[in-house]
């Protein structure tokens, strides 16, 4: 399975640095792989960004399914998805609470951030034992660290926010298990 192809499947149309960051690769290595995938007709580059072709989406599904069967992780990923679904409504409520907040009360903001951190502590169990999903743990932790460093847009208001990474994890679990959205 191509990490870059699958990453692009999960994050959607994106510029090179965002694909590289999500995949955990250098820009140069990611660009090289994207060019190879473009030659195969699996990805395309338009308006400065990269996206999957229909053929690429089908190939990613084939490769992901084959990889899941080859590693024998289908049951573990299914359990992870079930744990994810328990936490997902809470995450969505937290995002709404943050986005609908006027941010005039620092104590209220702090309470929401602490609730995100509490959810994050429990989210570790979703990904436990699934090495291919380890990059999400790194990215979710980095987003919360950015929030604590004063970059509060990393909670629910940027492309590298906790919310967006959580969404991509959801997309990855669905794609990996072949479940339509």
Short précis:
The protein is mostly helical and 181 residues long. It is built from nine helices and two strands. The radius of gyration is 17 Å and the shape is globular.
Structural overview:
The chain has helices spanning 3-11, 16-23, 27-39, 54-71, 74-99, 106-127, 134-148, 153-156, 162-177, and strands at 43-46, 49-52. The two termini are 21 Å apart. The protein has a two-stranded antiparallel sheet. By secondary structure, it is mainly α.
Low-confidence stretches: none
- Counting H and I runs of at least 4 residues, what is the number of helices? 9
- Spatial shape: globular
| Helical proportion, percent range | over 70%
| Approximate strand percentage | under 5%
Supply the helix-strand structural class.
Answer: mainly alpha
How far the N terminus sits from the C terminus, by CA atoms, comes to 21 Å
- Let me know the number of strands: 2
How would you spell out the order of helices and strands?
HHHEEHHHHHH
Evaluate the radius of gyration.
Answer: 17 Å
Biggest beta sheet attributes: 2 strands, antiparallel
**Numbering strands along the chain, what is their spatial order in the largest sheet?**
1-2
Average pLDDT reading: 94
Give the helices and strands, then pairings.
Blueprint: H1 3-11, H2 16-23, H3 27-39, E1 43-46, E2 49-52, H4 54-71, H5 74-99, H6 106-127, H7 134-148, H8 153-156, H9 162-177
Antiparallel strand pairs: 1-2
Helix pairs in contact: 1-2, 1-9, 2-3, 5-6, 5-9, 6-7, 7-9
Any key phrases for this structure?
about 180 residues, mainly alpha, two-stranded antiparallel sheet
């Amino acid at each position: 399975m191509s990490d870059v192809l699958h990453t692009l499947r999960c994050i959607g149309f994106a510029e090179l640095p965002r694909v590289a960051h999500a995949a955990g690769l250098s820009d140069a290595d990611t660009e090289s792989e994207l060019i190879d995938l473009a030659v195969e007709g699996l990805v395309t580059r338009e308006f400065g960004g990269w996206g999957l072709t229909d053929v690429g989406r089908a190939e990613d599904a084939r490769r992901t399914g084959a990889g899941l069967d080859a590693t024998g992780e289908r049951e573990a990923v299914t359990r992870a998805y079930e744990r994810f679904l328990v936490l997902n409504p809470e995450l969505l409520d937290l995002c709404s609470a943050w986005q609908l907040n006027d941010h005039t009360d620092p104590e209220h903001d702090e309470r929401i951030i602490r609730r995100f951190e509490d959810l994050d502590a429990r989210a570790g169990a979703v990904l436990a034992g699934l090495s291919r999903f380890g990059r999400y743990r790194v990215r979710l932790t980095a987003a919360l660290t950015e929030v604590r460093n004063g970059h509060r847009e990393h909670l629910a208001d940027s492309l590298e926010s906790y919310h967006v990474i959580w969404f991509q994890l959801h997309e990855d679990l669905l794609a990996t298990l072949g479940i339509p959205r």
